[in-house]
C-alpha cells in the first residue's frame, strides 16, 4: 500500500516562540541571534523582506536594525526546547508514527489514519497548533518524505495555500508545483549537486523527476536514484522513529571522608564527568541529559541528597560542556552546612553520534561541535597513550564558562518560576 | 509472580503488588487497599499539558474577588472560553491583561484561565 507522509514545519520557529509572549511583535521585523557569535539564525518574514540574510552578523547589522526597527533577541534555547516539545507531544497524539526530524520539523506517517481530505486535515492541524500552542506551522503531505518536504516548502511560500499542501495525487497540478521548485531547494540536493545538475539542464524539481534514471545515477550515485524515486512519489526513505534504548552511563565515588568543601566536591564531579564522557565517546554516543547526585552518608542521621539535571538541546559528549554545567548547578544547590559522602554523575537519554546532523541547533553550534570533537579526540588519544587523567580540565577553565545570561535574551517564560510572563488585572 | 501454588487468598492482601503487607487479624491495613497513584495537583489543574502555561498576576484591584498581585494563573490555550470565564488577552500595546471573557477583545485572546493559585507563604 502506498504510504502517506506529512511534514509539519514551524514557520520561523525561534521568532514565533518570541512572539508568543510579545504579541505586539506580530507583523514587525524580528530576528533571533545565535548565542555565541551573534548571527541571525531565525528571521521573521518582515526581516527577510528587509533583505537580512540568514547568518547576518549582529555587529555588522546593528545600525541597520536600529534604522528599520528590527527587534533582535539572543537565542533562548530553553524556551524553544519547551515549545518544541509541546508541539511534538501534540503531533504524537495524532499518531504514534512520528519522526522528530529537528527542533522545528516532524514527519508523520498518516497511512493508518482514515483521512478523507488531506488538504482539509492539514488546515485543521495547522489551526489546532496555532490555537493550542501558539505557533504557526506549515504542512506538506505526499507519498514520500522528499515530496512532503517539497509540498511543505510550497505551502510556506505561497500565501494562497494557507499553510497546507497535499501532493498525494500525481498529475498536472502536482507537476505545476514541482516546476516552481528550484533544484537547489530540494531536500538532499544542496550546494554541491545543484550546479552539477544545472550544467545538465536540470533546474527544477520537475526536471529532476523527469531526467533519465541512468543519468541521475551517473551524476549523483544511488542517492540520486533514490531522490528521483521519492520525487516520483515512490517512498525510499522510511520514517526514522526514535527507538531510545534505555541506556545510560553512570560513574560514582565516595569521598575520602565526608566533606562540605566545595572544591573537593567540584573536582570529584569533574573527574566523574570526565570518566563518564570518555565512555560515551568510546561508544560513539551523545547525551541529552546529565545528572549529578550528591548525597550525605546513609548511615548517619539526616540523610539527604541533592540532584541536578541539565538538558542539552544539542546532544553532547564534551567533557567541558557537561562538567561546567553540572558544577554550575551544584554550586547553586549544594548545602554548605552538610557533610557529603558521595557523588554520582549520570549521562542519560543517549543518542548515536551520527544522529546529530539533523538537529537544527547544529546550525548554531556546528563549528563549536567540530572543534569540541577534535579537542575531545586529542584528549582521549593522549589519555589512552599515557594513562587516564594525564590531560585534565583545570577548574579555572571551568569557571570561565559560567557565562552570564545574555542581555538580549527573553525570559525563560516556561521554565523558571521567577521569569513567568505577567498579566495585569483590568480595573 | 503469582504462580498460584498457594491458595489465591494468600495474594489478596496486596502481596501481588509487591508491597508485602501481611495482615494477621483484626483491623485491616488501609494501605493495602490503595490502588491508584498519589493525588497530583498537576493532574487536577492541568488538563492539556501541551497548551498550559503559567502567568504571574499583576495588579491590586481584584482583592474583592480574592485575586492578589503575585498570584499564579494557570492558562489553558486549548479550551474555548465561556461566558463569565476569565481570559488573558493582549491590548494593542502588546500588554497582556486579565478580564472576564465579555470584556476582552475576542480576536486578541491568548488563553483561558483555569485556576489562580494564591500562596500564603511565598513573598512575591
Give a description of the structure:
Chain A is an alpha+beta fold and 427 residues long. Chain A has three domains: 1-168, Reverse transcriptase/Diguanylate cyclase domain (Alpha-Beta Plaits); 182-242, DNA polymerase, domain 1, CATH 1.10.150; 249-397, Dna Ligase, domain 1 (2-Layer Sandwich). Chain A contains 14 helices and 13 strands. The radius of gyration of chain A is 25 Å and the shape is globular. Chain A starts with a strand and ends with a strand. Mean pLDDT of chain A is 84; it is low at 356-368 and 395-405. With 124 residues, chain B is mainly β. Chain B has one helix spanning 41-45, and strands at 52-58, 72-76, 86-90, 96-100, 109-117. Chain B is built from one helix and five strands, in the order H-E-E-E-E-E. In chain B, strands 1-2-5-3-4 form a five-stranded antiparallel beta sheet, with no helix packed on it. Helices cover 4% and strands 25% of the residues of chain B.
Short structural description:
The complex is a heterodimer of chains A (427) and B (124). Chain A has 427 residues and is of the alpha+beta class.
List the helices and strands and how they pair.
The complex is a heterodimer of chains A (427) and B (124).
Chain A: E1 5-10, H1 13-20, E2 30-33, E3 40-43, H2 45-49, H3 58-68, E4 71-74, H4 77-92, E5 98-102, E6 105-109, H5 118-132, E7 137-142, H6 145-157, E8 164-166, H7 172-180, H8 190-199, H9 205-210, H10 213-231, E9 248-259, H11 262-282, E10 285-295, E11 305-316, H12 319-333, E12 340-352, H13 361-386, H14 395-400, E13 422-425
Parallel strand pairs in A: 2-4, 7-8
Antiparallel strand pairs in A: 1-6, 1-7, 2-3, 5-6, 9-12, 10-11, 10-12
Helix pairs in contact in A: 11-12
Chain B: H1 41-45, E1 52-58, E2 72-76, E3 86-90, E4 96-100, E5 109-117
Antiparallel strand pairs in B: 1-2, 2-5, 3-4, 3-5
